[in-house]
Specification:
Strand order of the largest sheet: 3-2-4-1-5-6
Shape: globular
Strand content: 15-25%
Helix content: 40-55%
Number of helices: 5
Structural class: alpha/beta
Oligomer: single chain
Number of strands: 6
């Protein structure tokens, strides 16, 4: 009888430890904007394929506890973020792509699961900054739109990076 009580107590302690550690993890989802049109040249819209990809992104992230959405101010990035931000009733927070260091430092302090939408030449710096290592060695290729990067940061241990196609 005594062993059974100790066993139940140890089980509850283990459950609490696992819960406490898992609740200390923050997830950052980083994507390049979806497929863009060739026009207008300065600030192109998404293509039909790009709009569909933005909707797929919303479906993938809708149950991931996203509490913040960041994007640059271009139409293609905000249009990629918009379906999820509207579904979650979150404002898209604009960041300056030329000052990614400020965004990275802000995200490192955050405890909110976050979507960041960037460009082929910016997300490498954001991912590497959050991962605290050189995960991506070069900028994305011009036609590369399908990767969803997940950086998990916890109180303990090193950040972990995972890549999925969407």
């Amino acid at each position: 009888m005594y062993n059974l009580i100790i066993s139940k107590k140890n089980t509850w302690i283990a459950i609490l430890v696992v819960w406490a550690l898992s609740s200390c993890t923050t997830s950052f989802y980083i994507v390049r904007h979806a497929e863009k049109s060739a026009t207008p040249k300065e600030d192109p819209l998404l293509t039909e394929a790009g709009s569909q990809r933005a909707e797929r992104l919303k479906g993938i992230l809708s149950n991931k506890g996203i509490e913040k959405v960041y994007s640059t101010k271009t139409v293609r990035t905000t249009s990629t973020a918009k379906p999820l931000s509207e579904a979650k009733m979150l404002e898209i927070e604009i960041y300056e792509p030329k000052n990614q260091s400020a965004l990275i430092e802000s995200l490192k302090k955050s405890k909110q699961n976050t979507l960041v939408v960037g460009h082929s030449n910016t997300i490498r710096h954001i991912i590497n900054g959050l991962a605290e290592k050189e995960f991506l060695k070069k900028d994305l290729e011009d036609g590369e739109y399908s990767n969803l990067y997940l950086v998990k940061r916890g109180k303990f241990g090193k950040p972990k990076v995972k890549v999925e196609e969407f």
